[in-house]
Amino acid sequence: MTAAPTPAPSTETNDDETRTAGRGGIAVLGAKVFFILAGFVQKALLARAIGAAGYGALSVIQNIANIPNNVVVSGATQGVSRAVARARGHEDEALRATLRVHVPLAVVIGVAFVALAPALASWVRAPHVTTPLMVLGGVMFLYGLYAPLIGAINGRRRFGRQAALDVTFAVLRTAGMVGVGYVFVTRGMSGALGATIGFVAAAACILPIALRWTGIGKRGVDGPWSPKPMAYMLELFPLTAAQLCTNIILQADAILLRRFLGESATAGGLTAADADTWAGYYNACQLFAFLPYQLLFSITQILFPMLARAKADGDVAAVKRYVATGARLG
Q1: How many CB atoms lie within 10 A of CB 139?
Q2: In sequence order, which ranges of 124-158 are alpha helices (DSSP H)?
Q3: Mean pLDDT of residues grouped by 10 in the chain (330 residues)?
Q4: Beta carbons of 191 and 54 less than 8 angstroms apart
Q5: At what angle do helices 91-123 and 229-267 cross, to 10 degrees?
Q6: At what angle do helices 276-289 and 291-312 cross, to 10 degrees?
Q7: How far apart are the first and last CA of the chain?
Q8: CB 84 within 8 A of CB 156
């Protein structure tokens, strides 16, 4: 006895998905615009709260940390989103299976970044940022837990909740970095260190909110919706490799510039910290250059779970339609 063929998606279903994508796109794009505006406000306030040199030192720290941070966030979000999106009726089991991979990875990445921080600070000729750079190892760990939860929300196409978390985190991060950084400066301590501690505090606050909305999934009978750890990591590898190469390109100029500035300052009889102000100026200009990339990236967050589900259903026409729509919007 042969199994009945899977019915093709109806026009009504496609229309519902289009409307969902449209509403989700508006929500996520709106949150992305808010996130960008909050970033502008944050930079302006930080320059005043911790001073030009402190802002420059923080820029160096963030340029280094943004490479692994963005890889963790993008890779985990897209990997979990794909696993959850194609697990029709078994989303919780898929989430639990992916967390078995991402939780240990978060620990490893966080510890590795802390261990490498002194060498990284030395390479960019900024040994004075070693401690705040090590503090950001906490962000690596927390992002490693937070990003899979965002992926689960994205995979379920709950774009409104994803947008709400983006906006909430933007507010928490700005308040934490500016507030704690200012307190440190007024007490004669490093503003860059205070800002990084505020960043970790914001990440620690947003994690339980996301966890409340997603849970940690549930155990279930193994099936295609519950990827094995090794198979899942093999799927994750091309996503993270692509993100790693992209983010190295995005950050390489600022990191190399800081190294050259540090060498020039030392050769001119100045301290390594004297180069921070100029690095901060460049970082402020670089912020504008990233605007198109950040806005376009919001399109992928809408299309990715829809493509994953269409591919899992074998709906080739839907895959072509989503890709064409994404290319046209881009």
Answers
A1: 23
A2: 130-135, 137-155
A3: 44 52 64 75 88 91 93 91 85 90 95 96 93 95 95 86 89 94 95 96 95 84 73 88 91 93 88 84 81 72 71 78 79
A4: yes
A5: 20
A6: 50
A7: 47
A8: yes
Q: Using CA atoms, how far apart are residues 106 and 245, in angstroms rounded to an integer?
A: 20
pLDDT for 161 equals 87
Joined tokens for residue 116: 């490498």
Considering only CA atoms, give the Rg of the chain.
21
DSSP label at residue 128: G
Residue in 64, 215, 208 with CA at minimum distance from that of residue 140: 64
Are 144 and 76 within 8 A, CB to CB?
yes
pLDDT score at 241? 92
pTM above 0.90, yes or no: no
* Token output for 292: 């198109």
Could you tell me if 194 and 181 are in contact, meaning their C-beta atoms sit under 8 angstroms apart?
yes
Instruction: Report the distance separating Cα 133 and Cα 60, nearest Å.
Output: 9
Amino acid at 39: G
Give the whole-angstrom CA distance, residue 274 versus residue 171.
31
Q: What is the pLDDT of residue 18?
A: 52
C-alpha 128: how far from chain center:
26
Contact 216, 99 (CB under 8 A): yes
Beta carbons of 246 and 253 less than 8 angstroms apart = no
Whether the Cβ atoms of residue 57 and residue 128 lie closer than 8 Å to each other:
yes
User: What's the token pair of residue 174?
Assistant: 């700005």
Asked if 202 and 175 touch (Cβ cutoff 8 Å), the reply is yes
How many Å apart are CA 62 and CA 64, to the nearest integer? 5
